[in-house]
Specification:
The chain has one domain. The chain is 60% helix and 12% strand. It contains 9 helices and 5 strands. A 3-stranded antiparallel beta sheet has the order 1-3-2. The radius of gyration is 18 Å and the shape is elongated.
Length: 193
């Protein structure tokens, strides 16, 4: 199985990462900063679990560079300039500086693990970063699994021949479009967008 184009080409992955970065919730950020400033330890290593729905789906994701895609997203984590206004209205300037520095530090120490025995992908990082990633990665992973299930059923309907199918739909968001292309290419379904 080939690695999908959206994983191979840095420009596409970087574009997706920028969009992913806009998925942080300001309320989660404000809460985490509040925990830090109240003295709570946010450096403990925690794990975010992204389970495969079944062994076949896990295998498809593993073979199509899912860990690499997740790692690339984590490597590019940051607060986008387009999202800064809301944070500046909720946090002190020194807190915004701390936030940016903490994300840059934590992303360097985060890593992705493939757990073949349990058919899941694991993201290990500080509790600070894991709490911020919970919502966007839950959305991301759920949507990947939904598309994978749908496209797998479509393949079954045409006798397993990916040449009988192609993706030609435009999604409502760039986020969904990227994930549909990733899953379609993972299953060797042609793209015509």
């Amino acid at each position: 199985m080939k690695i999908p184009t959206v994983v191979q080409f840095q420009g596409l992955a970087d574009d997706f990462s920028r969009y992913f970065n806009t998925q942080f919730l300001a309320s989660d950020i404000v809460n985490k900063i509040g925990q830090v400033y109240s003295g709570q330890n946010v450096s403990n290593i925690e794990t975010l679990v992204l389970p495969g729905a079944n062994k076949m789906e896990y295998s498809v994701l593993k073979e199509s560079g899912y860990s690499e895609l997740i790692s690339r997203i984590i490597t590019n984590l940051r607060i986008e300039d387009s999202c800064m206004d809301i944070l500046i209205s909720e946090l002190e300037p020194n807190q915004v500086k701390f936030l940016n520095a903490r994300i840059l530090f934590d992303r360097k120490h985060a890593h992705v693990q493939e757990d073949d025995a349990n058919s899941m992908f694991l993201i290990h990082s500080s509790n600070f970063l894991i709490d911020l990633l919970l919502r966007p990665f839950s959305h991301f992973h759920s949507e990947v699994l939904i598309h994978l299930d749908y496209f797998t059923k479509m393949l079954e309907a045409v006798g397993g021949d990916p040449n009988q199918l192609f993706l030609n739909a435009r999604s409502a968001t760039a986020f969904s479009q990227y994930l549909q292309i990733y899953v379609a290419e993972s299953l060797n379904i042609a793209i015509r967008v």
